[in-house]
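Internal tracking record. Fields below are filled automatically when a chain is submitted to the structure queue. Please do not edit lines marked as system-generated. If the sequence contains nonstandard residues, flag them in the REMARKS field before resubmitting.
Queue: standard
Priority: normal
Entity type: single polypeptide chain
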Amino acid sequence: MIKAQHTRTGKLITGFYSGKRMEAAFHTIHLIGEQQDNGKPVLMIANHFCWWDGFIQYRLNKHYLHRKFHVMMLEDQLKKYAFLNGCGAYSVRKHSRDIINTLEYSAELLNDPGNLVLLFPQGKIESIHTPYIQFEKGLAFLLRLLDMNEFQFIFNVNLVDYGSYKKPSLNIYFKHYQYRDSRGMHQVESDFNHFYQACKTAQCKSLTFNR
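SYSTEM-GENERATED OUTPUT FOLLOWS
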């Protein structure tokens, strides 16, 4: 696997794309959620829907959480866009035993309260119109490696709409999730999808109100 790096060039790239470049690409950008922080490391899971993924969560982290940013990427994609390694990206090879090394590395990162780890549990880009986000097995394995009382679990859902504008508006929804071992992965998946649907409902109301 390829471990994350944090280079000066990577910091400049992520700062640019999550800042001025993103603001130029979208009509408006709203962060919607309750700001909380208990000082523990952050595990964030999000819907994976576009090229901007990663930079969106970097922006959320910069505004509210202020952690060292890490994101899991498919190894072939990370090799193709190697500059992202310096932005905190590290690799995973699906359908390989090396995935265990990646998940153990993720757990190691989450032992440090200064870190944030971002995962896309569906493992692939899907339309925001996907009715239900189905998780792959990696998140379940990672959660078994973690002490549930020693990290913050954050759900993030990102949605776009054009309305009457040339550029889309981006809403970045987030919430702190109270994870319990007894719930099991099916319950976590169900709870994330419940939040996903609630964000879609809020998005429809927002578009109606602001059109």
